[in-house]
Amino acid sequence: MMTEAFNSFYSTDDIIKLVNKSFISLGYIENKILIGYAGLLEMYSNITCELHPLIIKSEYRNMMVGSKLLKELEREAKLKNVLNIMLGSDDEDYKTNLHQFNFNNTDMSYILNNIKNINNHPYEFYQKNGYKIVGIFPNANGIGKPDIWLWKQLIDI
Ligand SMILES: CC(C)(COP(=O)(O)OP(=O)(O)OC[C@H]1O[C@@H](n2cnc3c(N)ncnc32)[C@H](O)[C@@H]1OP(=O)(O)O)[C@@H](O)C(=O)NCCC(=O)NCCS
Fold first, then answer.
1. What pLDDT does 65 receive?
2. What class, spelled out in words, does domain 2-153 have in CATH?
3. Ligand 1 pocket check for 3: Cβ under 6 Å
4. Spatial separation of the C-alpha atoms in residues 116 and 45, rounded to whole Å
């Protein structure tokens, strides 16, 4: 699932390390098959955690499995007093219009207000689940390949 979704190879060891270092780790199992996985990594003393990864087996996507898994992860996180979840959602394949902006001479608020989803970039999935774009890291993965940072506050203050 990881290799298919993220365009890079993950060994069994990589996956075990990732799961072991997670603060919260949840699988979504249907008919004894793992069809989704979500993990929260420690950040800022667990007041904030990083969501990585969230992944649904391709044939089960767009069936609200990701939303349900994320909701359950957030519920568990709240019980452990996590205040914020953040994540970076890379755009390495020009799925948004962000590669068209010159970040050096364009106001960031203009860019944030004019982001467009060209080819099913998951940032919109997160927005639908209450996450806000709080920043863009230009060229994070190479020229024209930014990382979109999203955030959600779990507890009303
Ligand atoms: C992103 C991902 C976790 C979403 O899970 P999912 O189960 O397919 O999503 P859901 O069915 O819960 O979708 C909820 C809503 O988000 C929308 N949505 C889901 N994926 C989307 C995408 N890639 N682009 C735009 N909208 C998307 C759905 O259309 C749905 O909208 P609606 O309520 O208006 O109908 C899943 O597609 C996935 O595993 N992708 C590959 C790995 C990945 O990119 N993970 C995120 C890395 S940051």
1. 98
2. alpha beta
3. no
4. 34
